[in-house]
Amino acid sequence: MEKRILALLFSLSFSFFECSYAQEPKPRGPVPSPAQLQWHETGMYCLIHFGPDTYTDKEWGYGDEDPAIFNPQSFDALQIVGAAKAGGFKGVVVVAKHHDGFCLWPTKTTEHNISKSPWKSGKGDMIMEFKKACDQLGMKLGLYCSPWDRNSPLYGTQAYVDIYREQLRELYTNYGPVFMSWHDGANGGDGYYGGAREKRTIDRTTYYGWDTTWKIVRDLQPMAAIFGDVGPDVRWVGNEEGHAGETCWQTYTPHAPEEGAIPANGFVKYWEATTGHRDGKYWMPAECDVPLRPGWFYHAADDAKVKSPYVLLDLYFKSVGRGAGLDLGLSPDRRGIMHENDVKVLKEFGDILKETFGTNLMKGAKIKASNVRGNSNKLFGTSFLTDTDPYSYWATDDGVKTPELTVDLGKNKTFNIIKIRENIKLGQRIDSLSVYALKGERWERIAGATSIGALRLIRLPQYHTARKIRLQIDRSAASAAISEFGLYAEPVHLTAPEIIRNKTGFVQIRTSTPVSGIRYTTDGTEPTANSNVYTGPFLLKSNGVVKAKAFKDRLAGELSVKEFGLVKTSWKVVFPVKGDLSALIDDNEFTVAEVAGKEGAITPSSPAEVVIDLGDVTKIRSFTFFPPQSTSRSGLVDQYAFFVSDDNRSWRLAAKGEFSNIAANRIGQKIKLNEPVNGRFIKFVALNLIEGNKASVAELSIN
To answer: Is 314 exposed, middle or buried (0-12, 13-18, 19+ CB in 10 A)?
Structure first.
């Protein structure tokens, strides 16, 4: 009996000694708030754009749209939110009001709202329907209310700011709980403004009084992460391509583009946000927003241009897999539901995620650490690396910044994905690490990574088979606190072929991996095993769509789709006469021509003009403008005019307008003419640039 008592006392005293000795590591640098933690745990969500632009075929409404056009007869919030859930997304951010000012809820702040539409005889509330759908499906709800309002006659005055704040109060009082509050950086410019039809500018650093405006969100929805170019909770990654930097810190200090100025939404060195700052002042992780289709709103012409499941998987690795969030844009069609193509892709993407991450190949493995904090395996041991808690973790003693883990999987296992997490409640601590596999009797370095943070997914270019794995932390700002280490294998698949066409009209299709064959179509149908076999370049002189798939044995690859305009064999640039402008018409979207105004720079009185001789009279239904694919804003054309002529002297205006959101979303801008026109000469006029004094044009095409 005495021995048992002594043993118990010894055990209790040892446990007390162990717990008192092995204290939790101190946090390093900024750490996430509770609202930011739940945002990290969400991982990926969808941004839903639906409104008058869906019916006008625009990306940014001007603000003069008649609410009568908005009448989605088959609107189904459950179908839309359900499609997102099937893709593995955990929430949706609904665009309650876009830049056109049309509100999808019956607001008291403006007449330009859903109650003035014929949908449900003016009695509907679309935001409430999305809320109910999220509640029913166990999805999180976020809201986007555009600060810019091209409809309001008061925009630019304090009275509008008061209206905007009241709109936020209505939304966050009546439709919570909300996991995210989304604030856009597009503010000021041309608009309807109650009939004024003018350009209005604001001081972006002061106009919205962001501290006061954000306080409304904080008071009404304290667990909502606030998104904007300057956060304060989640930052824009600096592009709309869906990817963060290879190195991406969760810490960030926003800087204004002008020395000494205060940064704000739409007024920030956005390019710094792609990687963040190692010693940033704030915990402000990045959101990677990207549309499922080329644009944010639905356009029937893009039905065949939905991103494939494996393109989405690649974006997942380059966003969520780099410690950021993935915000995928969904665009319901004019019926008020997700198009069948979009639903299919989302489901397939969700299935791939489940198949890929369903089994951690490290489960049951023996993991040996070079150091365990306080020798306390109960508190900081390696067993926490393979549990499901993102905040239980293996830790090392203070001062031990380059430890290693050795993993014995028990038998050879094949993988191509390495997953690592830090316990971000303690900050972002690791700068870089390496992963090795035992090949024979030699340790071979197979991967490396920087900036781990909330999550790091390393996708290897090839599969590896090994029994033993080693993780080595090469550089760290503090002792290790790693909450997860895993190995996974994604399904074998064939990548989408690349489709290109030269100026003479010959189409070439190629793949980066060996395949049994490539099948293609030019009639709009999806290729099957019975479609045309690609054996070499073929001629496509007229406009059309080429679709292609790679095949290997019974495995079919991803679909690739490329739309082409009229072939340009006989085209010539006849104005300007100086300089080489062949890049405009070489059918290569990655070559760029620069065009100056008549006075050497573009001004309202001296726009840049390009005149092209098509070689013969041609029927023109639309034209497509391709912006440069670089990240520079210099030379970006955002306002245009398009003319047609028979003789290069007498010109007819065929189209005039703006390229909405072109700085962030560098896609081809296809402009459909009101009616087809015939002519031999076309003239493209760059009326305004976002920055710079020479227009940069990658390609001009017509259909």
So the answer is: middle
Residue 138 burial by CB count (10 A; 0-12/13-18/19+): exposed, middle or buried?
exposed
Distance in angstroms (rounded) separating the CA atoms of residues 618 and 680:
6
pLDDT at 671: 92
How much is the average pLDDT of 673-690?
94
Distances 658 to 398, 598, 639, 662 between C-alpha atoms, Å: 57, 21, 4, 9
Phi then psi dihedrals of residue 693, to 5 deg: -130, 5
* Average pLDDT estimate for 532-553: 90
pLDDT at 10 (0 to 100): 44
d(CA 405, CA 443) in angstroms, rounded, equals 13
Give the whole-angstrom CA distance, residue 129 versus residue 332.
14
Identify the residue whose tokens are 């099957």: 528
For residue 139, give the 3-state DSSP assignment.
coil
CA–CA distance, 190 with 684 (Å, rounded to integer)? 21
Residue 308 DSSP SS3: coil
User: What pLDDT sits at residue 21?
Assistant: 53
Place of tokens 């790679």: 550
At 64 the pLDDT is 97
| Continuous segment of H or E residues that includes residue 346 | helix 340-357
The stretch 76-84 carries a mean pLDDT of 98
| pTM score | 0.89
Could you tell me which residues come within 8 angstroms of residue 330 by beta carbon, excluding any fewer than 6 positions away?
46, 47, 48, 49, 80, 83, 84, 92, 292, 338, 342
Nearest to 473 by CA among 400, 408, 365, 416: 400
Residue 447, φ and ψ in degrees, nearest 5: -165, 160
CB atoms within 10 A of CB 236: 26
How high is the mean pLDDT of the chain? 93
Highest mean pLDDT among 284-288, 571-575, 696-700: 284-288
Is the four-CA dihedral 629, 321, 35, 82 of positive or negative sign?
positive
Q: Is 233 left (phi over 0), alpha (psi -120 to 50) or beta?
A: alpha
Name residue 539's beta-bridge partners: 506
Q: How far apart are CA 381 and CA 497, in angstroms?
A: 46
Instruction: Report percent pLDDT > 70 for the chain.
Output: 97
Whether pLDDT at 700 is above 60: yes
